[in-house]
From TrEMBL:
Gene Ontology MF term list: Kdo transferase activity
Pfam families tied to this protein: Glycos_transf_N (PF04413)
Pathway: Bacterial outer membrane biogenesis; LPS core biosynthesis
GO BP annotations, alphabetical order: lipid A biosynthetic process; lipopolysaccharide core region biosynthetic process
Family of the protein in this entry: Belongs to the glycosyltransferase group 1 family.
One cellular component term from this protein's GO annotations in UniProt: plasma membrane
Keywords assigned: Cell membrane, Lipopolysaccharide biosynthesis, Membrane, Transferase
Catalysis: reaction(s): lipid IVA (E. coli) + CMP-3-deoxy-beta-D-manno-octulosonate = alpha-Kdo-(2->6)-lipid IVA (E. coli) + CMP + H(+)
Main location: membrane
Residues annotated as domain 3-deoxy-D-manno-octulosonic-acid transferase N-terminal: 3-146
UniProt subcellular location: Cell membrane
Protein name, as recorded: 3-deoxy-D-manno-octulosonic acid transferase
Keyword Endoplasmic reticulum assigned: no
């Protein structure tokens, strides 16, 4: 949610009239969290079945579907394609889904994406190997960690010892490069 909120605020800043929809699959996200989100519509996604998402695309006609981190539900991506909605994966991370049967499934879904934006340079080669050349892969970073690092840098006087700032940056870099272990 933090990544999505940071991205939604950027969309709002650049285009205040943009119609934003925030959806989640996890039951751990409370309705109050969704209501507080800076979006025009919020809801929980249905189970990933063929045609489960048609009502979303036929009602809202989104131009772009931004998936975050690793949430690439196959039927959601395919439905978006069917309704001519561009699909991008932002703050992208990859765990154990790059080899074997999971790698094949991941590749079959990723070929339907219009772009992948890894959260860190260390993920670039893996994502590049999982998609055809015509799908752009560009490292943009992780909106959640970028905002935390900016707060640290902007408030350096609070951290009187610069060594602390360097340690925090290294810690966040570690989190970005080892997401499955955190």
């Amino acid at each position: 949610m933090d990544q999505c909120k940071a991205l939604a605020l950027e969309f709002r800043k650049n285009d205040p009239s943009a119609f934003l929809i925030q959806s989640v699959f996890s039951d751990s996200v409370r309705d109050s969290q969704l209501e507080a989100f800076p979006a025009d519509e919020t809801f929980h996604l249905p189970i990933d079945l063929p045609f489960s998402y048609d009502w979303i695309f036929s009602r809202f006609h989104p131009k772009v579907l931004v998936l975050m981190a690793w949430d690439t539900w196959p039927n959601l991506v395919i439905s978006a394609n069917r309704f001519n909605t561009k699909v991008v994966l932002g703050s992208a991370v990859i765990g154990n889904r790059k080899k074997g049967i999971m790698g094949k499934l991941t590749k079959s879904v990723f070929k339907h994406l219009d772009g992948i934006f890894p959260s860190h340079e260390s993920f670039y080669d893996v994502f590049r190997s999982l998609v055809p050349d015509q799908i752009p892969v560009k490292v943009l970073g992780d909106t959640r960690f970028d905002s935390v690092l900016k707060k640290i840098e902007d408030n350096a006087k609070i951290f009187k010892n610069l060594k602390i700032i360097r340690i925090l940056k290294l810690y966040f870099l570690h989190l970005l490069t080892n997401p499955a272990k955190t």
